[in-house]
Amino acid sequence: MFLGLAELRHAPGRFVVLGVVLGLLVALMTALATIADRHVTDLTGKVATSPADLLVLDAAAQGALQASRIDDEAAAHVRQHAAGAELAPVGEQRMGARVADGELLDLSLWGLDPDSPAAPEVIAGRLPRQPGEAVLDVADRAQGAALGERLTLVDTGTVLEIVGFTAEARFGAIPTAAVTYDAWTEIAAEAADADPDEVEPTAMAVRADGGVEELAAALNGSSSPVQAAPPSSLASQLPGVAGVRASFGLLLGVAWMAVAAVAATFAVAGVAHRQRTIALLRAVGAPRRRLLAALTVQLLVVTAVGAVLAALLVVLAAWLAPADVPLRWEPGTWAASAAVALAATLMASAVAVVRLARVAPVDALGARR
Amino acid sequence: MTGARLALAELRARPGRATLTSVGLALVLLLALSVTALADGLVRGSTGVLRALDADVVVTDEAANHQLLRSRLVGAERTALLMRPDVATAGQIGLVPTSASVGGGAPERVTAVGFSPDAPAMPRDTVDGRLPRPGEPGSAAVDVALAGGDVVVGDTLSLAGEREVEVVGLVDDASFLQQPTVWLGQHDWARLRQAVQRDADYAEQLVGATVLQSTEHPEAVATAITEEHDELAVTTREGAVAAVPGVSAQQVTLGAVVAVTLAVAVGLAALIGVLQVLERRALLTALRAVGAPARTLLASVAVRGVLLWVGALIVSTAATVILAAVAPPSVPMEVRPVIVASVGGISLVAATLGVTAAAWPILSRLDPQDAVAEEPL
Amino acid sequence: MSETGVPGDLVIRADRVTKVYEDGERQVTAVDGVDLSVHAGELVALVGPSGSGKSTLLALLGALTVPTRGAVRLGDWDLGTLSEASRTRLRARHIGFVFQAANLVPYLTARDNVALAGELVGASRRASRREAEGLLVEMGLADRLGHLPGALSGGERQRVALARALLVGPRLLLADEPTASLDSDRAEQVMGLLAGAARAEGRAGVVVTHDPAVAAWADRVLWLHDSRLVVPDGGEERTVGEFSRG
Predict the structure, then answer these.
(1) Cβ separation of C102 and A276 shorter than 8 Å?
(2) pLDDT tens per residue across span A270-284
């Protein structure tokens, strides 16, 4: 350990460059992991945080809420197979909206009854109980949302009062509001120039007393007009989620390999550069494992410094990032990225063993082997 | 050219030493290429519909705020806009999310696009067959991405499990929000919409956006229409592409990731520059002693770095192509030559600067006298 | 010879030792059937032209490499039969080296370079540093303890190397051209210390050199030519005067 640290002190320049490179890579890994997590939460939070045991969609919608309508036949199917369970309609529709007199926003408007299995949890204020009330997600405070503030639906001219906030409950990565189901049907009907009786729920929420899996199996039986799944499972099937996970997972894998390769390049080049000193140390009786330990200590120290630098970079980037970039400072994600980078570094120092083995003590003498 | 010869000679003599360095570089470049290809694929996969059209201005209702899915314009706006001198032609499109299955296979999510038989509303090219003709119900042109590319002209398509249409043509690169599209004549589309959105107002016509070919600069036309029509949201095709949900956020986010990756590449290049000089200090000092100027040695280091970079770029391009091929279909990576050229070009310039900037301070301080010094330390 | 003129115990012995190495497709015999014994209290000089095999013989005696044929014995150990790990431990504990170049670890101070020898045999860092300081003070380097090798003169570096070689009290001291880069005054000073150390405490020393002045410090001078000892060990040896003429 002493040998490794002494060299770090003696020639910090190249270690600083390595630390910066590793720091940037760890920052990149942290940012990728955070963005992927936040993006998935932003896409699916409203579904994933539903307190229902099961959500039921139109089977033909293939898991896409926007394409789902629960018609009478589907509703009858649910009632028949879920007798005894508590059922509630769920509505979802995209609309244009303004918070106070702010910019025109795309809004995902949900109809959820406050005393039903579909009722969302609020972290501030209360659930909407009257037609003119709505809750928004806390992330939409960035758009100027506040308790008591107005939310205007541009399509219908409806003005809603914000009475509460949900958390981690956005949908489709856009501002997400919820009103009572009856209020939602009124708004959806007005937007479509239709009669409120014609408006069909987008989905159904089910709360069972037990036997959720059996109930789901019964609802999903052959030629069923519906697809029933627990909210978390449905959230992962929503459009785009698999793509985000797979894409960012792929990038993280490549970034991890890059950390290992950069550290290995440095380790191997370091052995080549210090060949004479290593030969001298071997000649005077330093075992290989001691030299390898010195190299590993150097790489670990540099990676640790890189990880700290990465933390600073991510904090800075999260602070500077525009509102629509889902980058936040999440210590857990950073710690996981740093740990993965340290593991990659350890692997890299193992690569240097091969190079180290080629340095013979006799090289210190300049004599033939 | 002495520097280049020195670099080439060393690479030939000790190719093994360059290998690991190249692997490190190739992985960082692979990261840069993958992120760029992914960003490109995501944006293209979300906006194919708009790019496939021969329109340069897109009109939605004001509340829809450029969102094609939400717009509820009908034919009246198209007719009114056609009267304008700055509009050459106009067409109507409507989008509805639904599902489709080919030949009784498993259904997959698609966007059904209804289009009027007007030039700006029709895909410019078909890769096989043709588009449905006016007055030809039960026919569709489909995105080649449907059914994993296994769909052919003559197949039967079931839409939302409710309507069957025959595939009469194939279009390419026309997806919307990462879903393949199915292009239908207006009556088929209106009936499908009624089937899947039973609460929607019934209309035997397209409900959606109006698309235009302008006779003047598209931005000027968009501004002029906006000023005259409060009830419309008008933008250029590029504006409509940027307004597609998620596109601008993806561009900013992944653009930042690409920038950081390129910064890593520059840092790595600097590191390689430093290591190259330190590793060869004795040799470089000896070369200084026999009269090689420092700039020749710098050229040698830079050329070596560039050669490693080019090698790594070739390897990483091949790796990215393989990665894109083996990645699950949900990963929309597209490796286009323009991506390789831009990432390769930018990174090469940045890397050359990184290598030389890092190597020069050490090279310029090499003392030829050290070549005959009593003990190299 | 020992200080009493009576040969002490045998420290190291080479029996018909041969070292052959590969040079591309060619096989080169660097040391060819050399017999050699060095006793406690004795300093032996190995001299000969470049390429005669001096350094290879030193590497064989120092367990830095193993013979192709023949045997090298240090005390009871047959160096050729030991594993690499055992030879590493043996070098750390029983053999002290003073090399010509790259003799010190460039990023350790003079004190830490010397203390390293103690740490390699398991002594605590603190104790090793204390001993190292004592030795360096004895070598006249009291004011150079915290200096890095780059800040020391050639003579100072060789004295630090000698201190490192002596720290653990090795049985054998090996030096390869220890004064090659020093002026005559400094060479004299270093050789005085080295010769004294090589003969002290029942130790034996072998020094490889081109320099007659260095060879003059030795009790015996062995001449290598074309990989062989010209006068076999135990035969009639050349005097220093003959060597300087030859």
Answers:
(1) yes
(2) 787 778 888 889 888
